[in-house]
Write a structure and sequence with these properties.
Elements lengths: L13 E3 L8 H5 L5 E4 L2 E4 L9 H5 L5 E3 L7 H12 L6 E6 L4 H5 L3 H4 L4 E6 L7 H9 L4 E6 L9 H18 L7 E5 L5 H18 L4
Parallel strand pairs: 5-6, 5-7, 7-8
Antiparallel strand pairs: 1-4, 2-3
Bound molecules: iron/sulfur cluster (2 copies).
């Protein structure tokens, strides 16, 4: 029996802080009907929850958390990126969506081919790539950041559309601060298209190497 479906478990499932204002925005906004109001509190159905993080962004009270799992939270992703970017010869961060790329990475040579110049970080959904995280990566002196997400119409959380908006907004900001917006790119690749993923990474690294380090 899945009695745990009504429990709140720390991990890749969303949880709710005691400070929740019970506004029900997350209940209405969850595309998977995983959140509900029961016994005077908000609970998450751990079977239905896809860890897309939409409720984290929706909550006006900052009361939703996703503790861990493939870099579901920004701090986790940022720590991993930061650790890598301190290394000599490190240049770029590749942010790949868990749903579209992680299975491919597990069964391919892409991860094995990863060299000291770039690091692939898997996040739970392209929609979790906030512009603040992207900005932090550039503040950490990344030469470039490549975001990889699903093609239009293939993300059931609408995460790819959000990722595109975040990238576009940050490209505009980079331009304002005289950083070449080409240093931030987004690619949409169908699940299973490993060769294209590797080609896009190679092309991106070629471009980044031509641009050189951030001044
Ligand atoms: S993380 Fe996504 S699927 Fe899970 S409860 Fe929040 S909005 Fe729903
Ligand atoms: S959106 Fe935030 S404050 Fe509103 S019910 Fe959900 S967790 Fe509580």
């Amino acid at each position: 029996m899945f009695a745990g479906t009504e429990f709140e478990m720390p991990g890749t499932t969303s949880t709710t802080d005691p400070g929740c204002a019970l506004c029900l925005s997350c209940v209405r906004g969850c595309p998977h009907e995983a959140r509900s109001f029961k016994n005077s509190k908000i609970i998450t159905d751990i079977v239905k929850c896809q860890s897309c993080g939409i409720c984290v962004e929706i909550c006006p009270n900052n009361s939703v958390q996703i503790a861990m799992g493939y870099g579901t939270n920004r701090e986790d992703l940022n720590n991993k990126a930061s650790e890598f970017l301190k290394k000599e010869n490190s240049k770029a961060i590749i942010l790949g969506c868990n749903w579209s790329y992680y299975p491919d990475l597990q069964s391919s040579s892409i991860q094995g081919a990863e060299d000291l110049e770039y690091k692939i970080l898997i996040n739970m959904c392209g929609g979790r790539i906030e512009r603040q995280l992207l900005l932090e990566l550039f503040l950490e002196k990344a030469w470039g950041v490549l975001v990889a997400c699903c093609p239009d119409g293939e993300c059931e959380h609408g995460g790819n559309l959000k990722a595109k908006l975040h990238v576009k907004a940050l490209q505009s900001l980079l331009k304002d601060i005289e950083v070449d917006p080409e240093r931030l790119q987004i690619v949409q690749i169908a699940h299973g298209d490993k060769p294209r993923f590797q080609t896009e990474i190679n092309n991106f690294m070629e471009k980044i190497n031509k641009l050189g380090p951030l001044k």
